[in-house]
Amino acid sequence: MAMTSTTGTTDVATDETGSLIAASKVEGTTVYNRQGDNLGHVYDVMIDKRSGQVAYAIMSFGGFLGMGERYHPLPWKMLDYDTSMGGYVVDLDKDRLEGAPAYSASERPDWRDRDYTHRIDNFYGVTPYTGWV
Question: Does residue 80 belong to any structural domain of this protein?
Answer without folding.
Answer: yes
